[in-house]
Amino acid sequence: MRPASTVVVGAGVIGASVAWHLASRGARDVVVLDAAPGPGGGSTAAATGGFRAQYATAINVRLSLMARGKLLRFVDEIGADPGYLPAGYLWIATDAAELHALRTARAVQHAEGLAEAVDVGPGEVARLQPAVSTDGIVGGAYCPTDGFIKPRAIQDGYREAAVRLGVRFAWDERVVGFERDASGRVDGVRTARGTIACDAVVNAAGAWAGEVAALAEVDLPVVPLRRQMAATRPTRAVASDAPMTLYCGDGFHFRERDGRVILSWPTPGNAADPFDTRVEPPWLEAVAEKKDARIPALRDVPLDSSACWAGLYEMSPDRHVLLGPAPSLPNFYLVNGSSGHGVMHAPALGQLAAEIVLDGTATSLDVAVLAPNRFALGRAIAAPEVL
Ligand SMILES: Cc1cc2nc3c(=O)[nH]c(=O)nc-3n(C[C@H](O)[C@H](O)[C@H](O)COP(=O)(O)OP(=O)(O)OC[C@H]3O[C@@H](n4cnc5c(N)ncnc54)[C@H](O)[C@@H]3O)c2cc1C
Q1: Which of 29, 44, 66, 68 could be bridged to 348 by S-S, CB 3.0 to 4.6 A?
Q2: Which of 43, 225, 228 to probe ligand 1 with, by most ligand atoms within 8 A of CB?
Q3: For strand 4-9 and strand 30-33, is the pairing parallel, antiparallel, or unpaired?
Q4: β-bridge pairing 89-93 and 244-247
């Protein structure tokens, strides 16, 4: 097999973004390998399509603002429409502790320049999202520049633009091992079809990144977590440009998409089989109950079990991405553990990863806090569960 400068493992939105950013910087012979038979085999195809900069940590706000700038330039830079629709994100608080968490996060957001993120009272919640009941709501947070994106359009846009720059994508190419040179660096990637010699590897294998890293004897604390999504029958009860609406207390959230309302409620997943992506009927019943209690406009709109689905988040211990060389293997780069925010951050992460591979360090943003060795050094990022 033809040698590569860099092999990217995984052709999801992050692998495609990394590949395009490498090629756009002039890197030649970039190869992307994916185990799936074609594009869309991973979590990217399962994503809801939310975009937000309302986070609780400075680094996540910065990644979002960098990504937002790139989404606004996406048509010019990539030649495709990423579907960015600033419909807003509306967080709902039902007690003082939740309100406090939102306000604390907002101070971080304002310090990072996200001036448009604001406090809202129950009346404003009702105006922004008329479908919800205001019973028990004490306030919330809203940012009008948050909103929606199209995960597959971003993934396909990066992939097609990368191909135009000479990047090779190979499907049905599950990575099964890595070769090392005498100094211990990775110098080859093994698949069932053979070995590709390379100078560097980027692990972009999403929820499977821990398994891929283990093949290189790299201990990567990224694990899969099932996220189930419910969908209603077709309805116009929620406007297509109404904000993503989330309840701080239990993470229940919903938005309109493609003529239905899609809803989710985070649960711990299937501990016995972390890669399980079945939708559990009792979960659907619980979501239907929450829907009816919180969204009167949807009481007469049943869920459609044939339109529901589940996919995998890629969780890191502090719910922030690990970005940089593996501590024990300097030419094995990690872009893993976005913890459910990988689509929205992919434009930024691809650029930053390309800088790290080609320049030895990220120059567009200081990403030292995301260093993969932070856990070993006792420097996990502190962030509240909310946001
Ligand atoms: C229900 C749900 C809703 C979500 N909503 C949002 C959202 O609103 N906004 C947001 O930003 N994020 C969201 N996410 C998270 C988002 O989908 C992920 O963060 C993102 O898709 C990760 O991208 P990726 O490229 O790393 O992974 P993936 O898209 O999973 O790509 C990884 C690829 O690696 C390949 N692979 C795995 N093992 C191997 C191997 N051994 N060899 C070769 N290839 C391999 C897989 O086939 C796959 O194609 C959501 C996720 C889910 C499940």
Answers
A1: 66
A2: 43
A3: parallel
A4: parallel
10-residue mean pLDDT series, the chain (387 residues): 94 98 98 98 98 98 98 98 98 97 97 98 98 97 98 98 98 98 97 96 98 98 98 98 97 98 96 96 98 98 98 98 96 98 98 98 98 97 87
pLDDT of 170 reads: 97
Query: What per-residue string of b and e applies to 297-323 under the rule 16 or more CB within 10 Å gives b?
Result: bbeebebeeeebbbbbbbbbebbbbbb
pTM of the model: 0.98
Sign of CA dihedral 355, 360, 363, 364: positive
Using alpha carbons, select from 9, 48, 6 the residue that is nearest to residue 25.
6
Query: Tokens 């996220």, residue?
Result: 227
Dist. CA 292 → ligand 1 center (Å): 31
Ligand 1 contact, 112 CB (< 6 A): no
User: Residues for the chain: how many in total?
Assistant: 387
Looking at this protein, which amino acid is placed at residue 22?
L
Nearest CA to ligand 1 atom 15: 340
Helix (H) or strand (E) holding 293: helix 281-294
Check: CB of residue 225 under 8 Å from CB of residue 210. Answer: no
CB atoms < 10 A from the CB of 115, how many?
10
